Amino acid sequence: MKFKTIVITKKRIMAVFSVIAAVGVCAVIAKFNVPKVQTVFNDNIYEEILSESLPDSEEKGIDFKKVINKLLGFDTSKPETVLSEYSSVFEGTSEDVVNTAMPLVTEAPIESTPPAQVAQNEQSMPTKEQISASVGLKLNNATDYSVDIDSMCSQELALTGQTPCVLVMHTHTTECYDGDQMNGESERNTDGEKNVVAVGNEICKVLEENGIKTIHDTTYHDYPSYQGAYTRAMTTIENNIKNNPEINIVLDIHRDAFVYEDGTKLTVTSDQNGVSTAQVMLVAGTDSMGLWHDNWRENLKFAAKIQNAAEIMYPGLMRPINLRTERFNEHLTMGSLIIEVGSNGNTLEQAKEGGRDVARAIAAVLNSK
After folding, report:
1. 68 is in which domain, residue-wise?
2. Are residues 222 and 310 in the same domain?
3. What is the pTM of this model?
4. Which long-range contacts link 227-231 to residues 24+ away (Cβ below 8 Å)?
């Protein structure tokens, strides 16, 4: 059984009463036709309430019940959800998960994988028919939506016929991996050769090698301040799309994390042709929290096809797709996903391998006609 400790801080309590008061004021305004006042959601304190970002200008309204539920961390109409909240790190881990800390590794340059090893891991690209003919895809669904993931995999993508252009970026740019890459106990590192940026570099190289135009934005969104990272990341994505209107896919590269009671870290690995490789998890957001996200099903179809292609090419590489209530800025294109490459117990080299493998699966989907 998985439990999550729910801490209702003074800040949360005060924010809840602020929201309730704001709702009351809005009701009075509506009743007595008082001139419209500026919304309280312009204050930075509400970034945390709304998780990823402030509402879009085109959004017609906010579900205040969902906002209050987000503040408290559970559904106020269903108190039992205090215990049903969970972390995704335990979902879809392979049987060979290592529960002991990995040994320290010496840092290697980004071009560390010998050409022979890269060739060993390369697989023939599956056809469009193979990619679409999935049976038995696994989905961890944290929403109330009913989803047939195999059926979605068989459907055409809105991206079909478009020339793919991929933006690779990182909301939590300083996330790093086990070994001497760690900065004390923070599990963060601002060195781009030692954090998820290095994994993003590998993904970009593979996509470019397969004829897919790729842009890698390495802006730091979680440093020096972690809070508000998704809001800052949304600005980065919007600026890239403005400067490069051909961008139709956004891949937000992260790594998972969990520390056990004995201090060891979650490690998710698979063996790919004798090479220890970090497992990968695709995360798709929805509009469950009340934020506008009409195209979440398109993103989920994209995830399903990538998942299926990867399983054909690299069996055991993928953890189940994670469908979440949060939006994660994935409303900005019809090809947006979070990609969790490994966890904090994996080594950077394992993560690079996982990044390269999932990138080949992505290329297979985008190049299939």
Report:
1. 10-84
2. yes
3. 0.71
4. 227/47, 227/48, 228/44, 228/47, 229/171, 229/172, 230/51, 230/52, 230/53, 230/171, 230/328, 230/329, 231/47, 231/52, 231/53, 231/54
